[in-house]
Design goal:
4-stranded antiparallel sheet, 525 residues, 23% strand, alpha/beta, 8-stranded mixed sheet
Length: 525
Amino acid sequence: MKKILFSLCSLLTCIGITPLIAQRYYTEVFSSTTVTSDVVYGQNFQVYLPTNPGPILIDLKADVYEPVGDTLSARPTVILLHTGSFVPIFYNGQPTGIKTDSAVTEMCRQFARRGFTAIAMDYRLWWNPVAPDVDVRKGTILQAVGRAIQDAKACVRYFRNNANTTNTYHIDETKISLGGMGTGGYIALGYATIDKYSEIGLFKFLPSTSYPTYCLTGGVTPFDSTCWGSIDGYGGNPGLNNSNNTPGVSNDICFVFNMGGALGDSSWLEPGDVPMVCFHTMNDPFAPYTDGPVFTPPPSSQYVVDVSGSYTVIKKGDALQNNSAFQYNTWTDPFTTRANTLNNGYDGLFPFELPPPPNPPSLVSGQAGPWEWWDSTTVYYICTNFIGFTQGHTDTILTQALWANPDMSSAKGHAYIDTTMNYLLPRLIASSCTPLSINEISPLAKSVSVYPNPATNKFTINITDTKVGAPQFIEINDATGRMMKRIDNPVGNKIVVDRNGLEAGAYLVKVKFNKGEVVKKIILQ
């Protein structure tokens, strides 16, 4: 096992050895971080937890990570949402599901050491995964997503308001990004795409029967605004929703990333949605990589609802030009090279290709969160001493967790997080979510444009700044870097390139000048 794990971690580390530029936001320029724990960003009603039979007003809390020794008064900020299946940790049959999960805290520290303010937030939980009626399972999970989005928006509003007043946490209120792992990825993607009440009223979500206990009405969206309020967190039943969570402050964010989550429906994606980056294991048992059903965790494994996974999200987001801030730039780092061997040319998608773990055929098969890890001794101590679970119950939790992450370890988790950060950060930076821009990576980038993009039969390379001089050559390379076409000493400032049999897909257009080179991305349909 140790040899296998070492080989896996070595491979992941070699996928990308260094980021693009050794500077703030790309690399860890601070050696340590500080955390302010349990900042109360709002209050709202928690419903139906195992230890709580009815709605109770609770504090919503977040941990804020900052770099030690930083003098910047306003930092770009990343808010991170944990996994957990919308059920409290351990009750969810998993050793993860809180804002202090190992993977969450490690990513927050890495963001802070790079010069960000990072925030790990909790959010309200609960749905009914064991209900025999699919309408209840489907309806309550949509309600859980809606309440969590309300909480995320309350969190954004609270810290944006703080930035505009006391600025306790040195936040740049114009540069707030949102990311999530597993269940948190569902929340982040929903946050970025649900902007109309009709979107949560799609036919596939509607219950056929009324269940007053769950505020479910036949033919009406489960996230009924008369009960739960708007998706922004305003209105609704005052005994179920608290509207007074920093009202009147903007919810806007500039970027979203998802690690192993999915989107409730691909129709939610529309032109103008914020840029998105997704990471997903291709055999994820809990969130489909493309499109497909979500099931409750084993052993019940009951159908819940059909959703759209990371492949569909990025494919459509790229087609809508929502990711244009980064999708037509070209990255020559080995992280991108690895992703491009699996993502069919859809920039912003990093698929992890992993073998399914061995398990009984009646159980799900696949790795859901290879970036996660936990300490089994701590799990035993908490479950048996504080929750009252038996040793057998706790053994089941740890066994189920290993089905989805069979070679779980800190080393493996760190390797996957390192890969994630190095693929994510250049795209986050290019999306104007930091004071840097992609033009700092390639000073000549503004001198060359490629159009139309996507293209069909031919495309034009336009050299817009004659001061850079004539190009020495132009290369057309495929996504793995293999040269497919070369034009030496091209003439003029507009060079038309004929497709000449190149297959559909993503290609890199390299224009070499005496002072350097520009690399652009072109999609051939």
